[in-house]
């Protein structure tokens, strides 16, 4: 680290000093995450099982089977990136505190999806195929390959020292915020809320509300890291970087569209692949806003059920702190105190 300038978030090393605190916003995100605590045991799947047996058409069941197969591995991929890449390169202890909490939440999501699969797919062979979806379902394998490409892009990066390495790390961070969580998972949530708009699978919808909250906060943290790095090193964000980000999101949309064509291949009434492409473009424009880039698609949200969900459950988590399931956090922290 250059002693002639303040420490920066991507400086190599492993800073352990919380006083004075350089990035209090990350510590606040950690505290807010602790308040938002839930458990899988709170979810009741009894009505869901009746819906699956008696209320859902063959096309609906194909949709839900593909969806839970994606869920079965999606959060594990995100966890791998946290452990292998993000934790060791974001050089601020308060940021690593948040990442530790995020890793717990990703494990909780994996538990939720495991419980979901055990309830929805009673046949052991069918469950096995769902857990092996990245190998035997082409549309899920394509999304996994996209994820692994970005994990592997910085897997051998031990220290971030050059401008090129900083850009490489940033592209990974942007990919996992804007593409993996912000497109792949948000599209999956849209299918869940579409089913809820038809009065189906309330247990899945209830658990998804909590996962949605967590993932929105994960995105907020990742985008705040990118904003912080941009403020510290504005020269990294040039025309080439913008071009790479646009190409990345475009590729992610095409990956997700292959999944949409698979999920909706049975002809699900009330939602189409055209709707999903426009929804993904709408989400991508929101991510461009967060990245300080001009919008590209200029389309509205085509899914009215996403606009009409319970305001308490689906409020914009970038703008409003969630309070529906908070636990108490005692004690105040003054950010400017030294030891």
Task: Write structural notes for this entry.
By secondary structure, the protein is mainly alpha-helical. It has a single domain (24-34, 43-314), classed as Ribonucleotide Reductase, subunit A (Orthogonal Bundle). The protein is 67% helix and 0% strand. It has 13 helices and no strands. The protein is globular and about 65 Å long. The protein starts with 23 loop residues before the first helix and ends in a 25-residue tail after the last helix.
Q: What is the topology?
A:
Elements lengths: L23 H12 L10 H9 L3 H32 L3 H28 L3 H8 L1 H4 L1 H16 L9 H35 L4 H31 L6 H25 L9 H18 L13 H4 L3 H4 L25
Task: Kindly list the characteristics that best describe this protein.
339 residues, mainly alpha, Ribonucleotide Reductase, subunit A, 0% strand, globular, disordered C terminus
What proportion of the residues form beta strands (DSSP E)?
under 5%
Quaternary structure type: single chain
What is the mean predicted local confidence, pLDDT? 87
Distance between the termini: 22 Å
Number of domains: 1
Count all strands and give the number.
0
State the helix count: 13
Order of helices and strands: HHHHHHHHHHHHH
Biggest beta sheet summary: none
Unreliable spans are 310-339
**Which structural class best describes the helix and strand composition?**
mainly alpha
The CATH superfamily bears the name: Ribonucleotide Reductase, subunit A
What CATH architecture would you give?
A: Orthogonal Bundle
The helical percent reads 55-70%
Q: What is the CATH T-level topology?
A: Ribonucleotide Reductase, subunit A
CATH class identity: Mainly Alpha
Overall form: globular
Based on CA atoms alone, the radius of gyration comes out at 20 Å
């Amino acid at each position: 680290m250059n002693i002639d300038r303040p420490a920066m978030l991507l400086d190599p090393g492993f800073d352990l000093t919380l006083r004075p605190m350089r990035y209090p916003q990350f510590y606040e995100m950690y505290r807010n995450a602790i308040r938002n605590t839930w458990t899988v045991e709170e979810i009741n799947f009894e009505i869901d099982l009746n819906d699956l047996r008696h209320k859902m058409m063959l096309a609906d069941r194909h949709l839900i089977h593909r969806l839970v197969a994606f869920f079965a591995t999606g959060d594990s991929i995100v966890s791998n990136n946290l452990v292998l890449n993000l934790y060791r390169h974001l050089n601020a202890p308060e940021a690593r505190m948040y990442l530790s909490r995020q890793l717990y939440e990703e494990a909780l999501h994996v538990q939720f999806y495991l419980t979901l699969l055990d309830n929805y797919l009673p046949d052991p062979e069918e469950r096995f195929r769902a857990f092996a979806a990245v190998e035997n379902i082409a549309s899920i394998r394509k999304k996994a390959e996209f994820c692994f490409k970005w994990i592997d892009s910085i897997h051998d990066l031990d220290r971030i020292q050059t401008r090129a390495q900083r850009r490489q790390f940033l592209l990974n961070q942007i990919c996992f915020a804007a593409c993996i969580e912000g497109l792949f998972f948000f599209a999956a949530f849209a299918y869940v809320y579409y089913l809820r708009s038809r009065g189906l699978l309330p247990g899945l919808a209830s658990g998804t509300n909590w996962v949605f909250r967590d993932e929105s906060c994960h995105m907020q943290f990742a985008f705040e890291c990118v904003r912080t790095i941009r403020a510290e090193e504005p020269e990294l964000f040039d025309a080439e970087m913008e071009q790479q980000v646009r190409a990345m999101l475009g590729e992610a949309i095409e990956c997700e569209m292959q999944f949409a064509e698979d999920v909706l291949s049975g002809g699900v009434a009330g939602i189409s692949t055209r709707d999903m492409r426009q929804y993904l473009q709408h989400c991508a424009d929101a991510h461009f806003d967060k990245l300080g880039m001009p919008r590209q698609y200029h389309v509205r949200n085509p899914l009215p059920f996403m606009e009409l969900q319970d305001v308490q459950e689906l409020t914009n988590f970038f703008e409003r702190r969630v309070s529906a399931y908070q636990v108490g956090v005692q004690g105040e922290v003054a950010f400017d105190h030294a030891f």
